[in-house]
Specification:
Length: about 290
Protein backbone atom coordinates (compact mmCIF):
# COMPACT_ATOMS: atom_id res chain seq x y z
CA UNK A 1 0.00 0.00 0.00
CA UNK A 2 1.01 3.63 -0.42
CA UNK A 3 0.55 6.36 2.15
CA UNK A 4 -1.67 9.24 1.05
CA UNK A 5 -0.31 12.52 -0.32
CA UNK A 6 -1.49 14.60 2.65
CA UNK A 7 0.17 12.27 5.14
CA UNK A 8 3.43 12.26 3.15
CA UNK A 9 3.47 16.07 3.21
CA UNK A 10 2.98 16.16 6.99
CA UNK A 11 5.61 13.49 7.62
CA UNK A 12 8.04 15.57 5.55
CA UNK A 13 7.44 18.55 7.85
CA UNK A 14 7.88 16.31 10.90
CA UNK A 15 11.25 15.02 9.67
CA UNK A 16 12.37 18.62 9.10
CA UNK A 17 10.99 19.76 12.45
CA UNK A 18 9.20 22.63 10.72
CA UNK A 19 5.95 24.34 11.70
CA UNK A 20 3.50 23.19 12.84
CA UNK A 21 5.60 20.27 14.11
CA UNK A 22 8.31 22.10 16.07
CA UNK A 23 8.10 19.48 18.83
CA UNK A 24 10.08 17.16 16.51
CA UNK A 25 13.88 17.79 16.37
CA UNK A 26 14.80 20.53 13.90
CA UNK A 27 17.03 19.07 11.20
CA UNK A 28 19.29 21.25 9.09
CA UNK A 29 20.54 20.12 5.68
CA UNK A 30 23.36 17.90 6.99
CA UNK A 31 21.13 16.29 9.61
CA UNK A 32 18.47 15.50 7.02
CA UNK A 33 21.11 13.58 5.10
CA UNK A 34 22.19 11.90 8.32
CA UNK A 35 18.59 10.90 9.10
CA UNK A 36 18.38 8.83 5.93
CA UNK A 37 21.98 7.56 6.09
CA UNK A 38 21.27 6.20 9.59
CA UNK A 39 18.59 4.06 7.93
CA UNK A 40 21.00 2.88 5.22
CA UNK A 41 19.06 4.93 2.66
CA UNK A 42 21.35 6.64 0.16
CA UNK A 43 19.85 10.13 0.00
CA UNK A 44 21.95 13.30 0.28
CA UNK A 45 20.30 16.71 0.57
CA UNK A 46 20.96 18.65 -2.62
CA UNK A 47 20.59 22.15 -1.15
CA UNK A 48 17.00 22.67 -2.27
CA UNK A 49 14.16 23.66 0.08
CA UNK A 50 14.34 21.17 2.93
CA UNK A 51 10.72 20.06 3.20
CA UNK A 52 10.33 19.90 -0.60
CA UNK A 53 13.41 17.70 -0.89
CA UNK A 54 12.24 15.41 1.93
CA UNK A 55 8.80 15.11 0.35
CA UNK A 56 10.38 14.10 -2.97
CA UNK A 57 12.46 11.45 -1.17
CA UNK A 58 9.38 10.12 0.61
CA UNK A 59 7.41 10.07 -2.64
CA UNK A 60 10.11 7.84 -4.15
CA UNK A 61 10.22 5.57 -1.10
CA UNK A 62 6.44 5.43 -0.94
CA UNK A 63 6.26 3.98 -4.47
CA UNK A 64 8.49 1.01 -3.65
CA UNK A 65 6.91 -2.44 -3.52
CA UNK A 66 5.76 -4.07 -0.31
CA UNK A 67 5.19 -7.82 0.17
CA UNK A 68 2.10 -7.27 2.32
CA UNK A 69 -0.66 -4.76 2.94
CA UNK A 70 1.77 -2.27 4.44
CA UNK A 71 3.85 0.65 3.15
CA UNK A 72 7.24 -0.22 1.67
CA UNK A 73 9.85 -1.49 4.16
CA UNK A 74 11.82 1.72 3.62
CA UNK A 75 8.81 3.86 4.49
CA UNK A 76 8.13 1.77 7.59
CA UNK A 77 11.73 2.32 8.72
CA UNK A 78 11.43 6.08 8.19
CA UNK A 79 8.25 6.40 10.25
CA UNK A 80 9.49 4.19 13.07
CA UNK A 81 12.85 5.98 13.21
CA UNK A 82 11.11 9.37 13.23
CA UNK A 83 9.63 8.43 16.62
CA UNK A 84 12.74 6.80 18.08
CA UNK A 85 13.08 7.94 21.71
CA UNK A 86 16.73 8.85 21.22
CA UNK A 87 15.66 11.86 19.14
CA UNK A 88 13.82 13.37 22.10
CA UNK A 89 16.65 13.36 24.65
CA UNK A 90 18.68 16.31 25.97
CA UNK A 91 16.61 18.90 24.11
CA UNK A 92 13.93 20.92 25.90
CA UNK A 93 12.43 22.04 22.58
CA UNK A 94 11.12 18.59 21.59
CA UNK A 95 8.25 16.51 22.97
CA UNK A 96 7.95 12.80 22.27
CA UNK A 97 4.34 12.54 23.43
CA UNK A 98 3.20 15.31 21.09
CA UNK A 99 5.19 13.73 18.26
CA UNK A 100 3.51 10.37 18.81
CA UNK A 101 0.07 11.97 18.90
CA UNK A 102 0.73 13.94 15.71
CA UNK A 103 1.92 11.02 13.63
CA UNK A 104 -0.80 8.72 14.98
CA UNK A 105 -3.45 11.19 13.79
CA UNK A 106 -1.61 11.59 10.47
CA UNK A 107 -1.64 7.83 9.78
CA UNK A 108 -5.16 7.13 10.99
CA UNK A 109 -6.74 7.80 7.58
CA UNK A 110 -4.34 5.25 6.07
CA UNK A 111 -5.59 2.51 8.44
CA UNK A 112 -2.21 2.42 10.17
CA UNK A 113 -1.37 2.72 13.83
CA UNK A 114 1.68 3.05 16.05
CA UNK A 115 2.55 0.58 18.80
CA UNK A 116 5.16 1.58 21.40
CA UNK A 117 7.32 -1.36 22.47
CA UNK A 118 8.70 -2.09 25.93
CA UNK A 119 12.03 -0.46 25.03
CA UNK A 120 10.28 2.75 23.93
CA UNK A 121 10.72 2.26 20.18
CA UNK A 122 7.80 2.54 17.76
CA UNK A 123 6.35 -0.13 15.47
CA UNK A 124 4.11 0.71 12.51
CA UNK A 125 1.19 -1.71 12.26
CA UNK A 126 -2.06 -2.13 10.38
CA UNK A 127 -5.03 -0.98 12.44
CA UNK A 128 -5.65 -3.67 15.09
CA UNK A 129 -2.48 -5.49 13.98
CA UNK A 130 0.33 -6.98 16.05
CA UNK A 131 4.11 -7.23 15.98
CA UNK A 132 6.10 -10.39 16.74
CA UNK A 133 9.83 -10.29 17.36
CA UNK A 134 11.97 -13.26 16.29
CA UNK A 135 15.32 -11.81 17.34
CA UNK A 136 17.75 -13.83 19.42
CA UNK A 137 21.22 -13.42 20.83
CA UNK A 138 24.12 -15.82 20.45
CA UNK A 139 27.17 -15.61 22.74
CA UNK A 140 30.41 -16.48 20.92
CA UNK A 141 33.32 -18.40 22.40
CA UNK A 142 36.13 -16.08 23.55
CA UNK A 143 39.90 -16.44 23.91
CA UNK A 144 41.59 -15.16 27.06
CA UNK A 145 45.18 -13.93 27.40
CA UNK A 146 47.27 -13.39 30.53
CA UNK A 147 49.59 -10.39 30.74
CA UNK A 148 52.03 -8.81 33.18
CA UNK A 149 52.84 -5.15 32.44
CA UNK A 150 56.32 -3.87 33.25
CA UNK A 151 55.48 -0.16 33.28
CA UNK A 152 52.28 -0.26 35.36
CA UNK A 153 51.09 -2.09 38.43
CA UNK A 154 47.89 -4.10 37.99
CA UNK A 155 45.52 -2.52 40.54
CA UNK A 156 43.88 -4.57 43.26
CA UNK A 157 40.51 -3.36 42.09
CA UNK A 158 37.59 -5.00 40.33
CA UNK A 159 35.94 -4.03 37.07
CA UNK A 160 33.21 -1.45 37.66
CA UNK A 161 30.47 -2.29 35.15
CA UNK A 162 28.97 1.18 35.54
CA UNK A 163 32.21 3.11 35.07
CA UNK A 164 32.96 5.08 31.89
CA UNK A 165 36.38 6.68 31.60
CA UNK A 166 37.10 9.61 29.29
CA UNK A 167 40.46 10.22 27.66
CA UNK A 168 40.85 13.73 26.23
CA UNK A 169 43.22 16.71 26.38
CA UNK A 170 43.02 18.55 29.69
CA UNK A 171 42.19 22.11 28.72
CA UNK A 172 39.15 24.34 29.06
CA UNK A 173 38.12 24.06 25.40
CA UNK A 174 37.00 20.47 26.04
CA UNK A 175 34.85 21.26 29.08
CA UNK A 176 31.67 21.35 26.99
CA UNK A 177 32.53 17.96 25.47
CA UNK A 178 33.10 16.42 28.89
CA UNK A 179 29.84 17.92 30.17
CA UNK A 180 27.95 16.41 27.22
CA UNK A 181 29.41 12.99 28.09
CA UNK A 182 28.72 13.22 31.82
CA UNK A 183 25.15 14.31 31.08
CA UNK A 184 24.52 11.02 29.25
CA UNK A 185 26.18 8.98 31.99
CA UNK A 186 24.04 10.63 34.68
CA UNK A 187 20.88 10.04 32.62
CA UNK A 188 21.76 6.33 32.39
CA UNK A 189 22.77 6.09 36.08
CA UNK A 190 26.39 5.39 35.13
CA UNK A 191 29.64 6.80 36.54
CA UNK A 192 31.93 8.93 34.40
CA UNK A 193 35.49 9.97 35.28
CA UNK A 194 38.61 11.50 33.77
CA UNK A 195 42.05 10.90 35.20
CA UNK A 196 42.12 14.43 36.65
CA UNK A 197 39.06 13.49 38.74
CA UNK A 198 41.18 11.12 40.84
CA UNK A 199 44.51 10.99 42.69
CA UNK A 200 45.14 7.52 44.04
CA UNK A 201 48.76 6.92 43.02
CA UNK A 202 52.08 8.73 43.08
CA UNK A 203 52.23 8.85 39.26
CA UNK A 204 49.59 10.29 36.98
CA UNK A 205 49.96 7.52 34.38
CA UNK A 206 49.27 4.86 37.02
CA UNK A 207 46.02 6.68 37.84
CA UNK A 208 45.14 6.58 34.15
CA UNK A 209 45.95 2.87 33.93
CA UNK A 210 43.83 2.17 37.04
CA UNK A 211 40.93 4.14 35.60
CA UNK A 212 41.02 2.33 32.24
CA UNK A 213 41.54 -1.04 33.96
CA UNK A 214 38.42 -0.61 36.10
CA UNK A 215 36.20 0.85 33.36
CA UNK A 216 33.77 -1.04 31.18
CA UNK A 217 33.76 1.67 28.48
CA UNK A 218 36.49 4.11 27.46
CA UNK A 219 35.56 7.23 25.45
CA UNK A 220 38.55 8.72 23.61
CA UNK A 221 38.59 12.15 21.95
CA UNK A 222 41.05 12.16 19.03
CA UNK A 223 40.59 15.87 18.35
CA UNK A 224 43.96 17.52 17.81
CA UNK A 225 45.86 14.21 17.54
CA UNK A 226 46.87 14.40 21.20
CA UNK A 227 49.68 11.83 21.72
CA UNK A 228 48.59 11.00 25.28
CA UNK A 229 45.10 10.11 24.05
CA UNK A 230 46.64 7.85 21.39
CA UNK A 231 48.74 6.08 24.03
CA UNK A 232 45.74 5.67 26.35
CA UNK A 233 43.66 4.28 23.49
CA UNK A 234 46.31 1.60 22.97
CA UNK A 235 46.11 0.68 26.65
CA UNK A 236 42.32 0.45 26.47
CA UNK A 237 42.40 -1.77 23.38
CA UNK A 238 45.03 -4.04 24.92
CA UNK A 239 42.94 -4.42 28.07
CA UNK A 240 39.95 -5.42 25.94
CA UNK A 241 37.83 -2.40 26.79
CA UNK A 242 34.95 -1.15 24.69
CA UNK A 243 36.37 2.02 23.12
CA UNK A 244 34.12 4.75 21.71
CA UNK A 245 36.15 7.22 19.59
CA UNK A 246 34.86 10.79 19.20
CA UNK A 247 36.44 13.65 17.28
CA UNK A 248 35.82 17.08 15.84
CA UNK A 249 37.69 16.04 12.67
CA UNK A 250 37.96 12.56 11.15
CA UNK A 251 41.39 13.58 9.81
CA UNK A 252 42.68 13.47 13.40
CA UNK A 253 42.14 9.70 13.64
CA UNK A 254 45.32 7.69 12.88
CA UNK A 255 45.10 5.51 9.79
CA UNK A 256 45.66 2.38 11.90
CA UNK A 257 42.40 3.18 13.71
CA UNK A 258 40.47 4.36 10.66
CA UNK A 259 38.36 1.20 10.58
CA UNK A 260 36.83 2.04 13.99
CA UNK A 261 33.60 4.03 13.73
CA UNK A 262 33.97 7.44 15.36
CA UNK A 263 31.38 9.99 16.42
CA UNK A 264 32.15 13.30 14.77
CA UNK A 265 30.86 16.33 16.65
CA UNK A 266 30.94 20.10 16.51
CA UNK A 267 31.95 22.06 19.66
CA UNK A 268 28.82 24.22 19.68
CA UNK A 269 25.50 23.91 21.48
CA UNK A 270 23.76 21.91 18.76
CA UNK A 271 26.82 19.76 18.11
CA UNK A 272 27.29 18.85 21.77
CA UNK A 273 23.59 18.05 22.13
CA UNK A 274 23.86 15.71 19.16
CA UNK A 275 27.01 14.18 20.67
CA UNK A 276 24.99 13.39 23.81
CA UNK A 277 22.29 11.75 21.70
CA UNK A 278 24.74 9.66 19.66
CA UNK A 279 26.66 8.56 22.76
CA UNK A 280 23.39 7.56 24.39
CA UNK A 281 22.59 5.32 21.41
CA UNK A 282 25.99 3.61 21.60
CA UNK A 283 25.93 3.18 25.36
CA UNK A 284 22.38 1.86 25.35
CA UNK A 285 23.47 -0.92 23.00
CA UNK A 286 26.59 -1.66 25.05
CA UNK A 287 24.66 -1.85 28.30
CA UNK A 288 21.71 -3.55 26.60
CA UNK A 289 19.29 -1.14 28.25
CA UNK A 290 15.66 -1.51 27.28
CA UNK A 291 14.44 1.74 28.81
Amino acid sequence: MQIGVAAISKISEMICGDMPFQFFPYRSSSYLTRFFVDLDLDYVHDGSTRRVWVREVLDEINKKQSPDNMPSPEMVKVIEYLLHPDHFLFDDNVDGDKALDAITKCLKTNDLTISIQANGTARLLPANGEFISTSFEEIPTERVITFKPSVFQVPQKKLNEKLISVMMPFNASYSGTYTAITKVAAYMSLECLRADDMWDNSTFMQDIFDLIFCSKVVIVDFTGKNPNVMYETGIAHTLGKTVIPITQSLDDIPSDLGHHRALKYYPNEEGLRNLSNELYKRLKVIYNQTT
